[in-house]
Amino acid sequence: MNFFPESESVSAQKKRVILKELVKGREAATQLKFLLQNPFRSEPSLSSHELMANMFTSFTNALSVINTSSVEPGSADGVAHRDLLFSGVNLSPVPDSGNHPSPGDCSGKRSQKGGRGRYNRRRSEKTWTELSCTTDDNHAWRKYGQKGILNSEFPRSYFRCSHKYDQGCRATKQVQQDEEYPEMYRTTYFGIHICKATPKITHSATDSSTWESYFLNSDHDSNVQVPLITPPILTTDQEFPKETHTSSDLTDHKLLDPILLSDLKDFEPSNPTIVPLGKESDNTTADNVYSCTDSQRLDMDFEVAFVHFGTDFHFEEGQLL
DNA sequence: AAAATTTGACCGAT
DNA sequence: ATCGGTCAAATTTT
């Protein structure tokens, strides 16, 4: 039971990063609140889209730093960079000599029985880790393995890109339920996709399920000032399965497309319309409800999420800050 | 029938 | 010998 091993090793550097991210997120929330309270004020400001993207990025980064235990045996300073999302390159300075299957190198290393070739170990690939409530990332994956991991309560699942053979895409990922937050999944990506993106969201994007995917609901936490966004009606069958029994159905969730931080990086805001709806209608207790829509960018993957946000999201006044 | 997943064996590294 | 990653046959799902 080595829970919370990180409680003793939160370095000052980590704290600084976490603080910085949280402050940034709070700042974005503040601006968003102002923007929604004064929808017709024409001050130079980031769009609501951009602010939401900033909030998401900040919180995700902070969570990532908190949750990644980073006791790199050889490096005392290896704290932050390995934890940060999109740290880019894999930091282990692996010279990677003789690791790739250079032609002719096949060296007859073939077991008599299995007849398998040697596996290609892939160091020096771009790797990064995300912590999310969903396992869906808008790429087509094929599961090729699952393994129990020592000292881990949950198994780890292995996926490769579905286009490994038809397009030669070598991206893989590993997904494991988080120990500390079992409702979340820790995904480590290896390599970037070279496969052509498939336009998969052409059909009616009407079902609005996964709003909760993007936020941790910190119900009982009294001193965290996370803006409470009440999501639209969720279909329960798409809820994440609570593991009352064993923990084996990692691949069950075919949910909506989450926002990838990489997507948000090149996000350019357009002009959403924010419409105050006045007093409440059916299922909220808020006294001021705004509707925010942006129909211009339906083609973008991450935009679907924002459209859901836009058409359906409700803000409860007074719960911000 | 084809595609995706499950699962135990195999492989390389430690 | 052990561990984590991968393969591939068997099985399930579409």
From TrEMBL:
Family annotation (SMART domains): WRKY (SM00774)
A cellular-component GO term for this protein: nucleus
InterPro entries in alphabetical order: WRKY_dom, WRKY_dom_sf, WRKY_plant
Domain WRKY intervals: 136-198
Pfam families, per database record: WRKY (PF03106)
Main location: nucleus
Domain of life where this protein originates: Eukaryota
Protein's name in the database: WRKY domain-containing protein
Region (Disordered): 90-127
Membrane among keywords: no
Biased composition (Basic residues): 110-124
Keywords associated with the record: DNA-binding, Nucleus, Transcription, Transcription regulation
TM stretches of this protein: none
UniProt subcellular location: Nucleus
Keyword DNA repair belongs to the record: no
Gene Ontology molecular function: any one: DNA-binding transcription factor activity
